[in-house]
TrEMBL record:
Family: Belongs to the zinc-containing alcohol dehydrogenase family.
CDD domains: PFDH_like (cd08282)
Residues annotated as domain Alcohol dehydrogenase-like N-terminal: 25-144
Source taxon at top rank: Bacteria
Name of the molecule in the record: Alcohol dehydrogenase
Length: 404
């Protein structure tokens, strides 16, 4: 089969690789109808992880079951499914408590596994024609309809970033009436904004510097904050204090709460320096969040931080160690959540919101491509070029008699 393979920093190619096959009685084979390219793939693409060349990429996968192992009872050939990016066993101590992001069985090296990702177990990714899904019963979310129908792209986003955006909002304690600041208007930041609104947030501010992405944030009703125009925390505080309705509702002393209650980092360790965006400054977002989140607020750090970064600027950064405004966060009594999303905890509820027509996360999808265009799309997405906010690969596109 054909698959997208990481060859080294800045280089992926579409190679012929061996077809996956049923290796264990609980496996399922899925013919991929759509696979997403994720901001998380870019950390590997750029050589900013400890990945070795040869990884078949792709952790955002959906398709149709082609074959099931002999122990699989509840799924059959022809079922349409989406695969949460966490590969889980479904029954260990952590999976049983809903923490499928920290499965104790599927990865010998750490708690938690994923398809096509460094440090996340031996599983190949789904930017390919076929995917082996281990522990099939636990890892397949069943979908209605047919490949290529009008919900295909919405459903694909259930594999990672819609649940991830929602989890960020959960960690940041977004509730009806909440005020929310989100750093990063990539797919994750945009769906964190969208999820915050689904949860009833009153005000949502989204910070980035890519005009197309800020426009998308504005279109769903968020307030776009361009960090090229000044420190974003100050911009958000000014916007709130200059709003006569916000100001007019405040009692004496409440100016101390002129920030927001909920903060989300949807950027991670490759955050740009606000003063010189040609450079990275991994703590720039945390610093701004510590400033803008009100006393008693909460933070959701959904952007990735890794314990190994070959491109870190000094010895500490290479080991994922940073200097943080811990005192400021402690003094304000801020609750902080972080880590991989336990996708499966959210995917059924969010799937049913999509089916009911009450959520349409595919507004972020900007381009659909055949497998052969993946190398070009990686390069353009990596440069955050217009039109490349979220790219979906359709392996059957351009193939004879294909549905996509
Ligand atoms: N925790 C999880 O389970 C999980 C799952 C999926 C993705 N992620 C992570 O979420 C992050 C975002 O993913 P994405 O797909 O949206 O990727 P992305 O890289 O397209 O988006 C990041 C955005 O942040 C912007 N940005 C850079 N520096 C900034 C700064 N200092 N302030 C504000 N914005 C800044 C960029 O312009 C870009 O638009 C990545 O780190 C990704 O690995 C985490
Ligand atoms: Zn992803
Ligand atoms: Zn488990």
């Amino acid at each position: 089969m054909r698959a997208v393979v990481w060859k080294g920093p800045g280089k992926v190619s579409v190679d012929q690789v061996e077809d996956p096959r049923i290796e264990s009685a609980t496996d399922v084979l899925v013919r991929i109808s759509t696979a997403g390219i994720c901001g998380s793939d870019l950390h590997m693409y750029e050589g900013r992880t400890s990945a070795e060349p040869g990884v078949v990429l792709g952790h955002e996968n959906m398709g149709v079951i082609e074959e099931v192992g002999s122990a699989v009872q509840q799924l059959r050939k022809g079922d349409r499914v989406v695969l949460p990016f966490n590969v889980c066993c479904g029954t260990c101590f952590n999976c049983s408590r809903g923490y499928t992001n920290a499965c104790l069985v599927t990865n010998d090296e750490a708690a938690g596994a994923a398809y096509g990702y460094v440090g996340m177990g031996p599983y190949r990714g789904g930017q390919a024609e076929l995917l082996r899904v281990p522990w099939g019963e636990a890892n397949c979310i069943k979908l209605p309809g047919k490949p290529g129908d009008e919900l295909e792209d919405d459903f694909l986003l259930l594999s990672d970033i819609f649940p991830t955006g929602y989890h960020a909002a959960e960690m940041a304690n977004v509730q009806p009436g909440s005020t929310v600041a989100i750093f990063g208007a990539g797919p994750v930041g945009l769906l964190a904004a969208y999820s915050s609104m689904l949860r009833g947030a009153a005000e949502v501010y989204v910070v980035d510097a890519v005009p197309e992405r800020l426009e998308r944030a504005q279109k769903i009703g968020a307030v776009a904050v361009d960090f090229r125009k000044g420190p974003p925390a100050q911009q958000i505080r000014d916007l709130r204090l200059k709003n006569p309705l916000v100001r007019g509702a405040m009692r004496k002393g409440e100016e101390k709460m002129a920030g927001v209650m909920c903060g989300i980092d949807a950027v991670g360790y490759q955050a740009k320096d606000f003063e010189d965006p040609s450079k990275e400054q991994p703590t720039s977002v945390t610093e701004q969040l510590a400033e803008i989140v009100n006393p008693t607020g909460a933070l959701g750090i959904i952007g990735v931080f890794l314990p190994e970064d070959p491109g870190g600027k000094d010895k500490a950064a290479k080991q994922g160690e940073y200097r943080l405004p811990w005192g400021a966060l402690w003094e304000k009594g801020i609750r902080v959540g972080m880590g991989q999303t336990p996708v499966k905890s959210y995917s059924l509820a969010l799937r049913d919101l999509i089916i009911a027509g009450r959520a349409k996360p595919s507004f972020i999808v900007s381009r659909r491509i055949p497998l052969s265009e993946a190398p070009d799309a990686y390069a353009k997405f990596d440069r955050r070029e217009p039109g490349y906010t979220k790219v979906l690969i359709k392996p059957a596109m351009g193939q004879p008699s294909a549905a996509h």
